[in-house]
Design goal:
The complex is a heterodimer. By secondary structure, chain A is α/β, with parallel strands linked by helices. Helices cover 35% and strands 15% of the residues of chain A. A five-stranded parallel sheet of chain A has the order 4-3-2-1-5. The relative contact order of chain A is 0.23. Chain B is 25% helix and 32% strand. A four-stranded mixed sheet of chain B has the order 3-4-6-5, covered by helices on one side. In chain B, strands 1-2 form a two-stranded antiparallel sheet. The chains are: A alpha/beta, B alpha+beta.
């Protein structure tokens, strides 16, 4: 992992190039369904030629967690728009979350949408920066070696420094 | 410059230097794959892009505008769309 610094990756002699646009996203949710929006937006922004960075904080940090990333789930409880429609009483039953998660995976597969880990690879391949919230790591006992490769550990000030130069900032 | 397109039924269109078919793929995949295809081209070359995502009619012009490419032409075939994108000098 590298320290959070502003990287000047413009080629020598390219000073006349216009500054690229930038998007700064906060990913605060750790469910399978909510892992998609920040990754889709970051991947799209990078495809448009923008700089893109995602700050993974609180439950969103699960998306960068090696062990938790493959096990992201869709909530069956208190999720009236979820893939299976259940009264909350039944949504709390054992197996309901697993069933909702299975349906979401099938939706994505049938729509030829990449799974979350593949989106992460796509985003990384385009140079999207992944910031892991250092406070979340401390609060939840997440170690640097628990995270997928290529994350930058950062606190709020470092992320805001990145976001202050962004034309688009979204909290998800 | 026009020549026969690689797409059947499309006669006189900007000569494509590359063709990309994203049929069946949803946002953001057409934009993502188109940007990768455009990276392989040099300025002035043309990408012929086939999409079926209905959002593409809004997305592909946005892609060209944001990247600094030129959307030369497009054809809306109700269930699919074809775009001809000329790579820009700065994209």
């Amino acid at each position: 992992m590298t320290a959070l610094t502003v990287v000047d990756d413009q080629a020598p002699g390219a000073e006349a190039e216009p500054k690229p646009k930038r998007i700064a996203l906060v990913a605060s949710k750790g469910t399978l369904d909510q892992a998609y929006p920040p990754l889709i937006l970051a991947t799209t922004a990078a495809s448009l030629g923008w700089e893109a960075g995602v700050y993974f904080t609180f439950y969103g940090l699960d998306i960068l967690h090696k062990d938790r990333l493959p096990k992201l789930k869709v909530a069956s409880l208190a999720n009236p728009a979820g893939p299976i429609q259940l009264p909350n009483l039944l949504g709390a039953m054992p197996g309901a979350t697993a069933a909702a998660t299975k349906v979401m995976h099938k939706w994505m597969k049938d729509a030829a949408m990449p799974e979350v880990p593949e989106f992460i690879d796509m985003a990384k391949g385009l140079g999207v920066r992944f910031f892991a919230c250092s406070t979340t790591m401390g609060v939840m006992g997440v170690k640097e070696e628990d995270l997928i490769d290529g994350c930058e550990i950062a606190g709020a000030a470092a992320f805001l420094d990145f976001a202050s130069e962004a034309e688009v900032q979204l909290f998800i | 410059m026009t020549q026969t397109s690689a797409i059947p039924g499309v006669a006189e269109r900007p000569a494509p230097d590359a063709t990309l078919d994203t049929s069946g793929l949803l946002c953001p995949l057409p934009v993502y794959k188109a940007s990768l295809a455009l990276k392989e081209l040099t300025a002035g070359q043309v990408l012929e892009l086939v999409t079926t995502d209905p959002g593409s009619l809004a997305d592909i012009p946005a892609l060209a505008r944001q990247r600094g490419d030129t959307l030369l032409d497009f054809e809306d075939r109700s269930t699919s769309q074809i775009f001809w994108i000329e790579k820009g000098a700065r994209s």
